[in-house]
Structure formats: structure tokens, C-alpha cells
């Protein structure tokens, strides 16, 4: 599955998104013309991480349209234990496009940066902005780009001459380097592109992994000098007195947006003291009578730990901002109303906290959002009617849940999902099943701890486990998963012993066909992952006769080096299956054209077949290639493929930047079976379920409908050549059983989607944002008899996953093609079953 590119561009607490992953998952690599002109693709490069002084933040939007700050700046930090003298050092800037004529621009440095301290370099000043930087420690005049460029910390002041990442990082004078946007020169992958109003900043831990995309995130600029001074409300700058409920207002956007406010009073209810989004939450203990106005507010302090404690009563002033994780004008997400550049006084300590909102099962409305047909931000909130409005009306307030059932397992970011409505569409295994676009489970709530790990580690839980006792904390919108309870008090995890499922073994007369998305499987993956997947094939799926695999990567994995062969990946997998006690599977697949099938850049994911030659044979017919189309011929009323394996219409626009279906012809006990392996395009680009546009636009559906149309047409050719042909369509279709793509595939009655044969509560193979849902499918034509279908839950509900998908399997008796032969084979099958039972 591909949910689209998960790139950290929002401020996340420390420890904190690849259909599928994600998680930096899939997507195309954009290569600038300049990079090509300088010798081809920009290859990720790295140097030894700095042990002390490094680049902490870069901002190039100073004085630009919409900017608050008047100047660009570069901020340094020291994560070593001793001061670093900067005399003779420089910071240098290179444009992102880095043409042959580009020159490094230099700002010399003096002084030093203290251990754990900061050092501020002021750069070019624009014509806009209203707020000056704090007193800089060094001053230059470089007019940096707001969106793309490279900054280097250099141990002398001579201009660098390098123009590629490899050359620059090989220069011993370069102490640290960051490239952002589409910069050619960078460490590893570039940091995300900032804007006129945002910077790229290193996390408060100052981690230096030599991958700019991992080390830097986009957020509000927070220039800080060696004295610890940062930009805030300037002394004497006028502010408007306001209460928190006045600031929050009755819509999603504050009526005080981008305005200075003062005399904002409240009790500190929670503090986030780590990560790049530090700050604290306050609640006014004297609420108004309007249920639409939240009494909570987040005070953002950037990478600075706020000097407040829970129970402090404060009076604050600052600027009201609506924070979006990306560009506000084009964002699909909702915003967080917050107070930035804040100054405050602590009036008293140890005050009782305002009572939390205690959530009951019937409190959150069943309807997600108004069906506005567009942006809902300006609509008056209706918290008693819509779930998104309910959470917005409690934004930054403390909410409390008790004995909450986990409906989405914990992940590497420390996130998990619970339900506040335990009777809302429960699955038999403790999840919450998603059954329609108008049936979003509004009781699902993300939980993420803001308790420092040294005090209490985030729990590792599976679906069906319970957070016992009380879990409470402020509620905040997150672009990863919607409204989130940021737990300052976390209930204990109760393990309800969820077990991985196993399916029965096929009987001698049954053919078993399974499908399994193995999530970017590459030779570089751990032996543990291979072993888990292999045991899934052998033990949980009971060694199917045929397996369609999705997300098999090439032999070099995500390294984009032109490799397309996947024999090393498949050999390692099949050998591991043998070691797990399974048969020696053979495989068939077709290498794609390099970088044309989407997925993780360089990975060349593809679909393929495994089959057990002791049970089934593969009909090999030459001619299959990345660009040739498989056809159908009829021979005495029997259908055959012109190529086996062969790709289905690979040149069709429906498969652009997406995996092409693979058709294979198999023979089981003299009966021909056609299996079509699939991996449709991802949901990347769709507006989020919980975003500001309601209902969300699912733009990726257009391509999947085209793909379903092509595939359904090929099935029609097979069944036109032989109406009794055994056809199985399997794979990760990246769509729901109620989607337009599945409606197209099943139109005309040629195929039956087997997930629909299960009880509604069991229709899922994937868990996303706490919603148990269907992305993987097996469809069958009308010919197979005695069909027995099973989704085998081994991954999606568990914190420990070999893949993010559950496999599924169908067992059936293939038709021989005429009623008399079928009757005879039925008799033989019954004898087989009898012998099998008595053996």
C-alpha cells in the first residue's frame, strides 16, 4: 500500500511519515537541470558529523512578502562540552541551482559559541517585515533564497569552490553543511523547502545524521543569539487585550490571527520540554458560556524549553498565529491556533488545574464534518453536530479518557489510536472497521505521549489492548492522524494477548492462491524481517500454492543506481522460506523500466509470483518484457496467454508511474488457472479525511478507476475466449471494497470481490489512523468452485510488523472447462478429502 510521501515537515515532539508505507515511502525524485549539467544525478553524500559547532537554523525569507522578520539569518549551535572559537571561521551560501558560474558568498565570523549555546548571523535585509532580529553575533549581507540553497560552516573565510555534494563534503574545511529545497549540494537528501514565513531548523537534540532531510524540519523561524535572546513581541509594541476564548473564536481561524495580543491569562496545564516544538498549554479557569470557543491555547517556544510549571498562573503577550505544517495558502490540513514570540510573567504557582473534559462514549458526534463542498475554516463551529467541530471547540484544552481500547497499534513515533466510542463498528479482534466514505469512525483518537521518555516510556501496544485508568492531556490537530491527545498523563497498557492468525492448509484437490504486500522488501532488509515474512508464508498461510507478491524491490533496494534485477531479493526470500520449513518456491516476474513504476525512489518495486512446483506448474511462454503487452488467444474453446508471464497493457496511461499488472498461466491437476498480480497507484495526493476541505477530494481515485477499467477489459478478453476460465485477480489495489475502482472491476459480474463474502466486521486487511480497512483484494471469476477465502491477520494490528499489510488466501477447486469433467473431478476431490481426513 502507498499512502504517499511521509516527510517530516511539521514540528513533532522528539521521537516523531510509505502506501504502505510511509514513513518516507514512495514518490519520484526530482532532478534539476543544473544537477544534470554538472555531471548527472545528484548522489546523496555525507561527511563525518560535527562533534561541536554546527548549523542549527537557516531562514531566507527575511523582508519578503508575508514575512514578519526583516532579515535572513543563519543560526549556529554547539552540542559539544566546550566553547568553540569561531575566529577565522565563516558561513557560506550557494544558490540551490548551483550553476557552473555560481559563487559561494562568505560572511566571516568572530567570537565563540558556548556549549549548548547559540550564535546568530544576520544576513540580507528585505523591504518587508516588521520585526528585527535579536542583536546578531555576526553580520553579513547575503540575500539567501527563501526556498532553496546550501549553507556551509567553514573553518576559514576563503570561498569554497566546490559545486557538488561529494566535492564539498570531501573538503576538510567544511565543518557542517545543509542543503534545503531542491539544493544540489546537501548532506544526504535535502531538507524540505521552507518559505517566506518558515525556516529549516535542526531538532533541539541537535542530532547530526548527515541527512539534511532527517535532521531539519520546516517551522516558524526562531533566531536566537549567544545571549539567549530571541525574536518576540518588541517592548512597547501595542497589543490588544484578549481572553483565550476571544483568541480561539467560534470558527477554526482566530479573529486575532497575525495580531499582537496582551493580558492573556491562564493556568499552565501541560508542558512539552523536548523536541523542536516546545511550549506549554494554558487554560482560562473562567470560561465563557459559548460551547464553540475553546478555553485552551498553546504557547509555542520553538527549541527553547519554557521556564514554567504545571499549575503556574501566567499573564502573556505575543502574536496569534495559525500554524500549518506546510504552506498556509495551499495546505490541505487544518491549523493550530497558537501564541508565538511570547513573553509572560508567572503570577502565582501551584494553582489547581481547570477540570478536564471527560470523554464519554456518546459525547463525540457520529458525523465527521459538514458536507460543505470546500473549505470549512470559516464556518461557525457546531460541536454538538460534527466530530471535527467538537475537537476544534476543545483545541488545546485538557481532555480525559479512561480504560480506552486501542484500535491502532503503536508505531515508531510513539503514536497509537484508541476509540472513545467502543461500540462503534468494532472488529472481532478489537479494532474499528471502516465501511464507507460516510461511515468514518469518529470515536477514533490518536494518542501521543509528551512525557519525557526518562520518566515514562511510550507504551508498545497492539490492537485490542487497553490503556487502563486515566489518560489525559491537551488536544491538538496533527497532519498525521487528525486530532491528537498529547498525553501528559498516560494510562498503563494492558496486554490483551492478541494472537497472529493461521489459516488451514489446502486440501489435495484445492488450489490455494495468496496475496502479500511485503513492504519494500530488499536484500538489505534484516534477516528478522525476512524470517517473519517467511514464517508468515509457511506457518500462517500454510504454504499456498501460488503467492502474488507486491513491493519486491530490486537488488540494490532504494539505491538509485540503475539496477532493475530482483533475483537477489527473491532468492533470499525463497531460501528463507525453505529455512522456515517451507517448499522451494520458484518465482516469475518481469523487471520494470528503471524508475518508471513509482514507489520508493530507486527501489523499482514490482509484483511477482511465487509458486510451489510440487503442486502447480507455470506455463512459460516467451515474449514478456517491461513494455510488451500480453494478449489472449482461444484454442479449441480454451483461453491461453500469448506471453506468460506478461504485463497487461503496460504502455497505457493508466499505469504511468505505477506498477503494471502481471498475468501468469498456471496448471493445477490438468486445469488451467490465470492469476493476475496487481499493485494499483497509491492514495498519495488525496486530501486528508480530517483536513479543512470537506468532503475531501480523492484525486488518486481517477487513476485507479482507469487501471480498473484496463484490468477489467483484460479479464473480459479471457472470459470471452473461454467463459469457464478460472481467473483470479489479486493484490494491493490501494482502495476500498466500496470504492469506484472496485465497482468497475466487479461490473458486469465477471469478477466477485471475495472480501464482500465476509461479515462486515471482518472486512479489513490494513489499519490506517486507527481505521481497520481494505486495501488488498482477491477477486475470482465464476468458474472456481468451493471457494474458501480468508484474510490472515498477522501484521496490521500489531506493533511488531514484518509488513504493514495482512496477507489473504483463497482455496478453491478449479473448473476443468466442461460439466462432465468437473463432475468427475468433483468425485476425485471428494475421495481426496476423505483420504486426507483419514490419513
Spell out the blueprint of helices and strands:
Elements: H1 33-37, E1 53-59, E2 71-78, E3 84-85, E4 90-95, E5 105-108, E6 112-113, E7 118-125, E8 138-139, E9 149-154, H2 165-170, E10 174-180, E11 199-202, H3 212-215, E12 216-219, E13 240-241, H4 244-248, E14 260-272, E15 278-283, E16 296-302, E17 313-323, E18 336-348, E19 357-358, E20 374-375, H5 387-392, E21 398-408, E22 415-419, E23 444-449, E24 466-478, E25 482-487, E26 492-494, E27 511-521, H6 527-540, E28 546-552, H7 567-579, E29 586-588, E30 606-611, E31 617-618, E32 632-635, E33 638-641, E34 646-647, E35 662-668, E36 671-679, E37 693-694, H8 701-721, E38 726-732, H9 740-745, E39 752-753, E40 766-768, E41 771-773, E42 776-780, E43 785-791, E44 808-813, H10 819-838
Parallel strand pairs: 7-8, 13-14, 16-18, 19-21, 23-25, 27-28, 36-38
Antiparallel strand pairs: 1-2, 1-11, 2-7, 3-6, 4-5, 4-9, 9-10, 11-12, 14-15, 14-17, 15-16, 17-18, 20-37, 21-22, 21-24, 22-23, 24-25, 24-26, 27-44, 28-30, 29-30, 31-35, 32-33, 34-35, 35-36, 38-42, 39-42, 40-41, 43-44
Amino acid at each position: 500500500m502507498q499512502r504517499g510521501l511521509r516527510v517530516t515537515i511539521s514540528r513533532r515532539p522528539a521521537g516523531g511519515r510509505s502506501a504502505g508505507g510511509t514513513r518516507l515511502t514512495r514518490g519520484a525524485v526530482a532532478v534539476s537541470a543544473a544537477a544534470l549539467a554538472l555531471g548527472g544525478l545528484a548522489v546523496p553524500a555525507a561527511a563525518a558529523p560535527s562533534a561541536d559547532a554546527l548549523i542549527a537554523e537557516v531562514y531566507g525569507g527575511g523582508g519578503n512578502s508575508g514575512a514578519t522578520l526583516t532579515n535572513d539569518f543563519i543560526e549556529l549551535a554547539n552540542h559539544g562540552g566546550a566553547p568553540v572559537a569561531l575566529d577565522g571561521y565563516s558561513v557560506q551560501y550557494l544558490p540551490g541551482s548551483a550553476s557552473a558560474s555560481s559563487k559561494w558568498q562568505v560572511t566571516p565570523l568572530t567570537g565563540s559559541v558556548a556549549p549548548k549555546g547559540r550564535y546568530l548571523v544576520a544576513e540580507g535585509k528585505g523591504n518587508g517585515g516588521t520585526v528585527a532580529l535579536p542583536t546578531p553575533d555576526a553580520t553579513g549581507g547575503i540575500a539567501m533564497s527563501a526556498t532553496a540553497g546550501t549553507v556551509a560552516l567553514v573553518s576559514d573565510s576563503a570561498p569554497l569552490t566546490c559545486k557538488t555534494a561529494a566535492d564539498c563534503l570531501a573538503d576538510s574545511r567544511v565543518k557542517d553543511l545543509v542543503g534545503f529545497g531542491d539544493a544540489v549540494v546537501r548532506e544526504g537528501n535535502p531538507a524540505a523547502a521552507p518559505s517566506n514565513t518558515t525556516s529549516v531548523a535542526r531538532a533541539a537534540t541537535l542530532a547530526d545524521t548527515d541527512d539534511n532531510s532527517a535532521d531539519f524540519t520546516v517551522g516558524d523561524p526562531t533566531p536566537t543569539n549567544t545571549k539567549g535572546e530571541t525574536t518576540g513581541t518588541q517592548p512597547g509594541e501595542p497589543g490588544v487585550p484578549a481572553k483565550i476564548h476571544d483568541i480561539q473564536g467560534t470558527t477554526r481561524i482566530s479573529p486575532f490571527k497575525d495580531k499582537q495580543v496582551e493580558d492573556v491569562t491562564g493556568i499552565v496545564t501541560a508542558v512539552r520540554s523536548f523536541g523542536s516544538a516546545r511550549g506549554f498549554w494554558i487554560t482560562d479557569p473562567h470560561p465563557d458560556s459559548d460551547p464553540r470557543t475553546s478555553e485552551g491555547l498553546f504557547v509555542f517556544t520553538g527549541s527553547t524549553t519554557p521556564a514554567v510549571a504545571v499549575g503556574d498562573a501566567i499573564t502573556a503577550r505575543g502574536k496569534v498565529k495559525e500554524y500549518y505544517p506546510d504552506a498556509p495558502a495551499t495546505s490541505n490540513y487544518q491549523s493550530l491556533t497558537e501564541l508565538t514570540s511570547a513573553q509572560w510573567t508567572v503570577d502565582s504557582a501551584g494553582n489547581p488545574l481547570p477540570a478536564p473534559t471527560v470523554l464519554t462514549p456518546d459525547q463525540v458526534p457520529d458525523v465527521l464534518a459538514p458536507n460543505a463542498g470546500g473549505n470549512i475554516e470559516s464556518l461557525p463551529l457546531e460541536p454538538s453536530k460534527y466530530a471535527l467541530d467538537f475537537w476544534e471547540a476543545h483545541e488545546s484544552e485538557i481532555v480525559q479518557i479512561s480504560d480506552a481500547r486501542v484500535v491502532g497499534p503503536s508505531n515508531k513515533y510513539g503514536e497509537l489510536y484508541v476509540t472513545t466510542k467502543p461500540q462503534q463498528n468494532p472488529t472481532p479482534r478489537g479494532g474499528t472497521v471502516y465501511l464507507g466514505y460516510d461511515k468514518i469512525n469518529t470515536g477514533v483518537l490518536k494518542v501521543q505521549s509528551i512525557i519525557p521518555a526518562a520518566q515514562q516510556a511510550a507504551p508498545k501496544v497492539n490492537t485490542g489492548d487497553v490503556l487502563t485508568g486515566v489518560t489525559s492531556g491537551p488536544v491538538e490537530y496533527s497532519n498525521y492522524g487528525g486530532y491528537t491527545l498529547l498525553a501528559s498523563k498516560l494510562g498503563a497498557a494492558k496486554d490483551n494477548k492478541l494472537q497472529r492468525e493461521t489459516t488451514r492448509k489446502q486440501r489435495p484437490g484445492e488450489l490455494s492462491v495468496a496475496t502479500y504486500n511485503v513492504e519494500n522488501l530488499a536484500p538489505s532488509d534484516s534477516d528478522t524481517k525476512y524470517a517473519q515474512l517467511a514464517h508468515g508464508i509457511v506457518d500462517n498461510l500454510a504454504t499456498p500454492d501460488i503467492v502474488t507478491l507486491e513491493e519486491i524491490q530490486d537488488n540494490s533496494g532504494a539505491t538509485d543506481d540503475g539496477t532493475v534485477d530482483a533475483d537477489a531479493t527473491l532468492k533470499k526470500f525463497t531460501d528463507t522460506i525453505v529455512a522456515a520449513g517451507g517448499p522451494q518456491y520458484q518465482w516469475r516476474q518481469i523487471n520494470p523500466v528503471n524508475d518508471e513504476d513509482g514507489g520508493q525512489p530507486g527501489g523499482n518495486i514490482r509484483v511477482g509470483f511465487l509458486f510451489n512446483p510440487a503442486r502447480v506448474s507455470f506455463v512459460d511462454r516467451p515474449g514478456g518484457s517491461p513494455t510488451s503487452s500480453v494478449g489472449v488467444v482461444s484454442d479449441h474453446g480454451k483461453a491461453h496467454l500469448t506471453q506468460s508471464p506478461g504485463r497487461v497493457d503496460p504502455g497505457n496511461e493508466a499505469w504511468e508511474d505505477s506498477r503494471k499488472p502481471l498475468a501468469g498461466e498456471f496448471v493445477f491437476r490438468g486445469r488451467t488457472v490465470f492469476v493476475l498480480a496487481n499493485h494499483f497507484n497509491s492514495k498519495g495526493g488525496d486530501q486528508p479525511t480530517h483536513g479543512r476541505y470537506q468532503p475531501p477530494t480523492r484525486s488518486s481515485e481517477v487513476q485507479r478507476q482507469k487501471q480498473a477499467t484496463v484490468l477489467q477489459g483484460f479479464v473480459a478478453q479471457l472470459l470471452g475466449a473461454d467463459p469457464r476460465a478460472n481467473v483470479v485477480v489479486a493484490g494491493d489495489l490501494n482502495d476500498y471494497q466500496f470504492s469506484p475502482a472496485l465497482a468497475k472491476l466487479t461490473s458486469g459480474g465477471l469478477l466477485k470481490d471475495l472480501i464482500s463474502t465476509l461479515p462486515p466486521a471482518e472486512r479489513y486487511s490494513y489499519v490506517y489512523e486507527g481505521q481497520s480497512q481494505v486495501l488488498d483484494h482477491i477477486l475470482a471469476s465464476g468458474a472456481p468452485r468451493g471457494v474458501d477465502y480468508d484474510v490472515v491477520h498477522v501484521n496490521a494490528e500489531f506493533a511488531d510488523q514484518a509488513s504493514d499489510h495482512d496477507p489473504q488466501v483463497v482455496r478453491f477447486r478449479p473448473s476443468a472447462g466442461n460439466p462432465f469433467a468437473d463432475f468427475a473431478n468433483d468425485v476425485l476431490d471428494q475421495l481426496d478429502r476423505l483420504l486426507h481426513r483419514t490419513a
